């Protein structure tokens, strides 16, 4: 099987896998299996899935370096868009299910709670990345596209800080995600240093 065929077969499968958390949440809500506070459960789960998929999208470039194969990069856009999708679900669940679209209360929450400010900032930064994720935008923006999409690392840090503050237990409550982000950022820094060294040779 050629690489092109592998990508053609695997992309629909990955798409379906990324849809499974939504299916599970919808079925759980329909069967009333979301616990004593279904709204909070939906907010928490959509937020965690957004973080998981965001980290997975960040892992595509390191996987290319570690495996020597560029096939991973073909999944990066899909993963990034699904991360944005789950962030939107997270925000909608928080706004309409947890607080019943009480805009005055939400405005107060947005201005006085640091974890909400950080999380909402990450969402705002994700919007231009989602809108410019197509190849057409990549051609139009050129080198600016790459610089714009490097914001994803800042977004990941903000998302991690949001989850840590939200859990109120510090980094230990989310240490697997924090460890993954640390490894991915360390690899990014290592690759940058290697490129800098090679440019001076």
Automatic annotation (TrEMBL):
Heterodimer of a catalytic subunit (MsrP) and a heme-binding subunit (MsrQ). HAMAP family: MsrQ. This is Protein-methionine-sulfoxide reductase heme-binding subunit MsrQ. GO terms for molecular function: electron transfer activity; FMN binding; heme binding; metal ion binding; oxidoreductase activity, acting on diphenols and related substances as donors. The keyword Transmembrane helix applies. The gene is msrQ. It comes from Agitococcus lubricus. It is a multi-pass membrane protein. It holds the Pfam family Ferric_reduct. GO terms for cellular component: plasma membrane. Its cofactor is heme b; FMN. The chain crosses the membrane at residues 12-29, 49-67, 79-101, 113-131, 151-166, 172-189. Belongs to the MsrQ family. Residues 46-159 form the Ferric oxidoreductase domain. It is found in: Cell membrane; Membrane. The lineage of its organism: Bacteria, Pseudomonadati, Pseudomonadota, Gammaproteobacteria, Moraxellales. PANTHER family: PROTEIN-METHIONINE-SULFOXIDE REDUCTASE HEME-BINDING SUBUNIT MSRQ (PTHR36964). One of its GO terms (biological process) is protein repair. The keyword Signal does not apply. Keywords: Cell membrane, Electron transport, Flavoprotein, FMN, Heme, Iron, Membrane, Metal-binding, Transmembrane, Transmembrane helix, Transport. Binds 1 heme b (iron(II)-protoporphyrin IX) group per subunit.
